[in-house]
Write a structure and sequence with these properties.
By secondary structure, the protein is mostly beta strands. The protein is built from one helix and five strands. The chain has one domain: Roll (SH3 type barrels). Helix content is about 5%, strand content about 45%. It has a five-stranded antiparallel β-sheet. The longest helix has 4 residues. About 20% of the residues are buried.
Length: about 60
């Protein structure tokens, strides 16, 4: 898919990955979580998949 960098972690699971880049492997939206947020499932270099909110990340452009 594409890669994102965690720039403004606000939740415990994303704080561990502040400044790190991971690959987006899925999406979740308001219809699938109780708080109505939009976000991504991101796999990081350690193999973990973490849900991050869309406003916590920026897209990483690669050539």
């Amino acid at each position: 898919m594409y890669r994102v960098r965690v720039i403004e972690p606000r939740y415990e699971q994303s704080r561990l990955y502040a400044g790190q880049v991971g690959e987006v492997i899925g999406h979740w939206g308001p219809e699938s979580n109780e708080h109505g947020r939009d976000g991504y499932l991101v796999q990081f270099s350690d193999g973990r998949v973490v849900g991050v909110a869309a406003d916590e990340v920026e897209t990483v452009v690669t050539d």
